[in-house]
Amino acid sequence: MNEKEREKVALFRYGLIAPLLNGQVDPKEYLKGLEGKVHSVPHYGERKIAEKTMKEWLLHYRRNGFEALKPKKRMDRGNSRRLSPDDQDLVLEIRKKSPHMPVSVFYEQLIERGEIQKNQISYSTIIRLLKKHNLVGKQILATPERKRFAHDKVNVLWQADLSHGPFVPINGKKTKTFLIAYIDDCSRLVPYAQFFSSEKFDGLREVTKEALIRRGKPTIIYADNGKIYRSETLQYACAQLGITLAHTQPYDPRAKGKIERLFKTIQTRFYPLLQAEPAKSLEELNERFWRWLEENYHRRVHASLEGKTPHEVFHSQLKDITFLEDLSILETIFLKREQRKVKADSTITLNKQLYEVPSRFIGYSIDVRLDEKGVYIFENDKKVAEAVPVSMKDNAHVKRARSPFSLSQTAELKGEQDHV
């Protein structure tokens, strides 16, 4: 199991314990509701999770954070083993990707891929395993249940969404904008929102970081199934911060009605101001929007707040808000994560670009994290180095250090010649 798979398993485990961690549910009822339920676990496949196991995960997370939810690394790599529970889970996970393939062909592919050895694992063993888990015929997937939320405390739930904005001049060309925003479920206050020129994750990263800095930490972030809200980067960040990331069911706009109502208010009360006096740049659009948000929307009586403004409701509960103690964590938890093996010339490839890393990583698979500013190398969840883009033109005039592998090979060759 590589690091990427270990992180996916940890995210699954966090998803199960998050409602318990954040006090969203009654522990006894929640655990009873999960009793006997079959879960699709990354890497391991379908299995039931015991109440004792979930309590152990919860305890590990509270003591040592997200890292404690990762499966332990195998110490017996390369040794011959029988079809252990982990091996069974791997076979089942592979099978789910091709459930209609004849079992005989599937068995041969497992051997060709090196997942099993023919002289150790028989065809009958594989077919018995698949029949036991109903993976010989059609696979039936359960539809997730959408739960409804209603909260009377601030920062329990933030709804998140993206809306199409007006066109503004950027580099002399009319460009469409996109508004990314959060709204607090209780107070209707907007923790942070900003217009961007694209729908990429970079915008969501900026909005989320600013919202956390300005308004504290929510218990739950509730979003739709848009690509940026399903990103692993956002999942990792929420898991590190102890925030539950929940999603609506597809094609169900009513599930996030409060932020949809916010966008409608912006369209009817802010956009007309732009028609009278169009914004001349993206920067001006955001400046005017933030001013309108603070002076108009936040301080205007809201119909659903019993005669109060979003500002009044939010600030009446300031004593209950949890602010981040260490803001520096925001600089690393929102980085995109990748795994790369370092080549013999101390380089890795990311997004069709060659990067140079310290030579001590040659031959190793490393944890790489990146954003639009740079590419960084992490060990044990800590940044230890930065990868540098390789310029072929500059490298033609630079004397590079020789790989330790090539040095050892040269020494072996010289030794052979000495014996001749």
Q: How many domains in all?
A: 3
The share of residues in helices is 25-40%
Q: Can you tell me the residue ranges where pLDDT is under 50 for at least 5 consecutive residues?
A: 76-81, 138-149, 403-411
- End-to-end gap: 45 Å
Element order, helices and strands?
A: HHEEHHHHEEEHEHEHHHHEEEEEEHH
The number of helical segments is 14
Coarse structural class: alpha+beta
Strands of the widest sheet, in order across it, are 8-11-12-13-10-9
The profile of the biggest β sheet is:
6 strands, antiparallel
What is the C-alpha radius of gyration, as a whole number of Å?
26 Å
Backbone shape: globular
Q: How many beta-strand elements?
A: 13
CATH architecture of the largest domain: 2-Layer Sandwich
Q: What's the CATH topology name of the largest domain?
A: Nucleotidyltransferase, domain 5
CATH homologous superfamily of the largest domain? Ribonuclease H-like superfamily/Ribonuclease H
* Overall pLDDT score: 84
In CATH's first tier, which class of the largest domain applies?
Answer: Alpha Beta
Strand content: 15-25%
Topology:
Layout: H1 3-21, H2 27-34, E1 38-41, E2 45-48, H3 51-64, H4 85-96, H5 103-112, H6 123-132, E3 157-170, E4 173-184, E5 193-196, H7 201-215, E6 220-223, H8 232-241, E7 244-247, H9 257-269, H10 271-276, H11 282-297, H12 310-315, E8 336-341, E9 347-350, E10 353-356, E11 365-370, E12 375-379, E13 382-389, H13 392-395, H14 404-419
Parallel strand pairs: 3-6, 6-7
Antiparallel strand pairs: 1-2, 3-4, 4-5, 8-11, 9-10, 10-13, 11-12, 12-13
